[in-house]
Amino acid sequence: MSEKDRYIPGVPCFADTTQPDPAAAAEFYGGLFGWQFEETMPEGSPGSYLMARLDGGVAAAIGSPPDGAPPVATWNTYVLVESADATATAVREAGGQVLAEPFDVFGSGQMATFADPEGAVFSVWQAGSFGGADVVNAHGSVNFNDLYVRDLERAQAFYGAVFGWDALPMGDGMAMWALREYGDHLEQRNPGNRQGMKEMGAPERFEDVVASVTRIDDDSPARWSLTFAVDDADAVAARAEELGGTVVMPPVDMPWVRMTVITDPQGVTFTASKFVPENQGADSPATAA
């Protein structure tokens, strides 16, 4: 889909990965997901920003680390907002940090980068000519944005204040971030969406869900991560190893999905997930994303 009204404020709209070697990352993700790349930085620029496309639509991007930033690979979540400046104020008032003040991005929009009270880093996007990813929920594209924190109540207070999100408990230290306006938006675009969710057996208010949140109980840092939709989790895990990645968690059945957790060759971890409705009642082993 490429409709310009896919996103409303408070909904994750894009993801990119910062990689010390963008060209090598393009080889990995291109080989894994079938992405085609377009360099968007002017010739002679010190860095690279490769827009990744699937079937002609924008799916994600790969970029160089900003000047002065450590050479660490990350996946970055962007949430659509009406005003990056107003969101920066809300982040400060809610106890977060402004890591990069709002700035213009070549007329495409305005972005800013923040950290929540536990240090999980995320960005916001105030759309200009670019409104967000065209391709989602298809093989090789973003399916979910996933937050990992220790204190779910603290996270709910922060993200509720900044984006208006509610936390819907899902058991086993996991919840879903929900934005009621999003369910209304989807119903307008696709009448009968709510009824379809109910008939499928989805949890209450699942049509409002914009992201997930999971409690971590190890020494890993609070963070935002990504889940990519795939047609075959087993095949993607095998292909990732062929391309130099590491399978952190082999493919496993979980409620509604079969999923695997992968670390790319430059060290950032993500999840690949195939939607499997017949797995509705599967157990929920711990994940490692």
What are the secondary-structure elements, in order, as H or E? EHEEEEHEEEEHEEHHEEHEEE
Shape: globular
As residue ranges, the low-confidence spans are none
Task: Return the CATH architecture of the domain at 12-127.
Answer: Roll
Name the beta content range: 35-45%
Count of extended strands? 16
Which structural class do you get from the secondary structure elements?
alpha+beta
Strand order, largest beta sheet: 2-3-4-1-5-8-7-6
Count of helical regions: 6
Largest sheet: 8 strands, mixed
Distance between the termini: 27 Å
Rg, rounded, reads 18 Å
The helicity comes to: 10-25%
Mean pLDDT: 92
What is the CATH third-level topology name of the domain at 12-127? 2,3-Dihydroxybiphenyl 1,2-Dioxygenase, domain 1
- CATH homologous superfamily label of the domain at 12-127: 2,3-Dihydroxybiphenyl 1,2-Dioxygenase, domain 1
User: Which CATH class of the domain at 12-127 is shown?
Assistant: Alpha Beta
Description:
The chain has a domain at 12-127: 2,3-Dihydroxybiphenyl 1,2-Dioxygenase, domain 1 (Roll). It has six helices and 16 strands. Strands 2-3-4-1-5-8-7-6 form an eight-stranded mixed β-sheet, covered by helices on one side. Strands 10-11-12-9-13-16-15-14 form an eight-stranded mixed β-sheet. It is an alpha+beta fold.
Based on the model shown, name its key terms.
289 residues, alpha+beta, 8-stranded mixed β-sheet, globular
What is this entry, summarized?
With 289 residues, the protein is of the alpha+beta class. It contains six helices and 16 strands. The relative contact order is 0.15.
